[in-house]
């Protein structure tokens, strides 16, 4: 075991102001959805250029409600990626629709947009892209394809809060855009999510869907016309979110700076170790669009005589936490039993087996980057096939 402090793959940052704001809500006499939620939604709407925004209990509920707002249900097909948190395709199944997995681009690890057209059928109603690690897909191309085939787009932007496309914020344009505020995300309300919608009619429907389908009429009247769930975000979470929004720009600068250091350190260390022939795949070197939610490498497993689990174990012994985001969804029993085959999306299968998330979070120290890179490259060197 390492004598140095353990570096987790991520850790949320909440400042004293945020902690105080939580105390204030607890003392206020109203702790569930109320004035803080309204303030958070209005602030988010400003952030997204005035588009309507509604918040939900988590990112999964947000995506489910997005699908419901888009009218997607039994008999419909939704095109998505196999490399995501399983929530993405679970919500498609949850509304009774069918996920259609299209393979990924090995460079971006996101949907390969050039493969979408071939997957479209008369049943296709929507595309659900995922911006893995915060890197958006080519948004011009995405919306051109959606227009060509008359499809809705439900963006799983869970990891992309603060990301951009051509100087426009992800969420400030497009169709339905879903974010998660789960503990590990760049902006966290502990748990939570928000949906950016097209108009007030959709926003009103989303409000009903998150609270039992309820419509209020006058001072004491109520009616239920549609079936809704219980997916509201509380004022406690909203108070945290309001403070996280203030801190986000400084966090963003720090994440970007750490990512740059990773690239420099990997290049230097691979060279000095004489390992430039190793096909260790680094992320797309993008310093304009991505929010650097994660820094992920793809291990050159063909050139190693160990698997990813062994690499992770050895890193852990050196005090370094890593994560797997994500194994291909098509490999899970539920999906195999539904007839999906991992071999239909071979790039996703390979990346899902070999992708590794390295530590990256605003509170990380510069020295930590050197420690992580040194440790990983040494492990690769030890296990490289001769
Ligand atoms: C976090 C995440 C979700 C789900 O969000 P929750 O808030 O955990 O429900 C969905 N998709 C992706 C890609 C995510 O990273």
Automatic annotation (TrEMBL):
It comes from the Bacteria. Coiled coil: none annotated. Keywords: Pyridoxal phosphate. InterPro entries: DegT/StrS_aminotransferase, PyrdxlP-dep_Trfase, PyrdxlP-dep_Trfase_major, PyrdxlP-dep_Trfase_small. The active site is at 185 (proton acceptor). GO terms for biological process: polysaccharide biosynthetic process. It holds the Pfam family DegT_DnrJ_EryC1. GO terms for molecular function: pyridoxal phosphate binding; transaminase activity. This is dTDP-4-amino-4,6-dideoxygalactose transaminase. It comes from Polynucleobacter sphagniphilus.
